[in-house]
Amino acid sequence: MKLRLLAAALAATVVLPLSVASATDLEVTHWWTSGGEAAAVAELAKAFDATGNHWVDGAIAGSGGTARPIMISRITGGDPMGATQFNHGRQAEELVEAGLMRDLTDVATRENWKDIVKPSSLLDSCTIEGKIYCAPVNIHSWQWLWLSNAAFKQAGVEVPKNWDEFVAAAPALEKAGIIPLAVGGQPWQSAGAFDVLMVAIAGKDVFNKVFGEKDAEVAAGPDIAKVFKAADDARKMSKGSNVQDWNQATNLVITGKAGGQIMGDWAQGEFQVAGQKAGTDYTCLPGLGVNEIISTGGDAFYFPLLKDEEKSKAQEVLASTLLDPKTQVAFNLKKGSLPVRGDVDLDTANDCMKKGLEILAKGNVIQGTDQLLSADSQKQKEDLFSEFFANPSMTPEDAQKRFTDIIASAD
């Protein structure tokens, strides 16, 4: 469904939920429901409540893939929330084009977002036809391999320093009754793991050619064939995970039932809640220990157009609060992500977060696929890798052909 076709009809029907108690109560929808995520979002709520307004939490259980259709349906159906989480990129593009989302350019200009938000690609992802429509809150990088030190000790092998050593250690882990690689059943997890393998094995230039330039010839070539071979290794090592949610897969690593997990830096929040210490209880390998490159995707908040003047004012306050230096530090330390401001103090960051900050400072970054692909193309990719990881009979060669077709038609 193209949302822009609904714009004229919906503009006249947008109303506020009758359940909202006061003008400064603002419902905020998001999909942060794991232990670490809940601790992080509580920091945002605390900061907003301190302004005299009230954060009405609208958490939606499940992943973004579950939550986004609900969020979009509410906005297009005339029941908008005060603010809603999306990932940096193109997920809200059609909502903006339909005239259903608020322009934050005045707030961004007044508070110099263009000067403080780093890298600039984060704000670029919020910008459509020169206007800013979202407030970025963090930098989440996918390119991490999280390892259980206890699992490798039990298996009698050294903690790996890179992907190849991890693959080589898999038989010892299996012999000890440990799943080598934890992968949850949600499609975005297997698709994300493939993207991480691409950067590590094929490199930054190939990643940008495939996802940035939509180069189908490169997608069909030998560099990507090597990535599919690694993805085949990954699916073999993940046999027996038998979990759905990403945080359940992370918990397998935390409890030593799995050797490792390819997952974004949000996994740090789960280790923190479990009382585990980076470098002691678990090890993190940015870029899988092969190419220390991180993506600069993450989360941002968009603000649907509201007719209530007081709530509209509260939206501005929330947008400003999200980028406040103190809020940025408190939230990101709990979330495991990096701040979007380059001028905040993160001396209390753990070893893994400091590794991410060093990589960011060197400029060894790529954009996330949410920024480079439309939501439709991203969904096709997720469907492919969900099937690939679930169906051992699909060969890497057949999967690469389907992947090439997706890239050839991607927008």
UniProtKB/TrEMBL annotation:
Keyword Ribonucleoprotein listed: no
UniProt entry keywords in alphabetical sequence: Periplasm, Signal, Sugar transport, Transport
One GO cellular component term: periplasmic space
One Pfam short name: SBP_bac_1
Signal peptide: 1-23
Subcellular location: Periplasm
SUPFAM superfamilies: Periplasmic binding protein-like II
Top-level division of the source organism's lineage: Bacteria
Similarity section: Belongs to the bacterial solute-binding protein 1 family.
Cited function: Part of a binding-protein-dependent transport system for a sugar.
Protein name as catalogued: Probable sugar-binding periplasmic protein
Organismal lineage: Bacteria, Pseudomonadati, Pseudomonadota, Alphaproteobacteria, Hyphomicrobiales
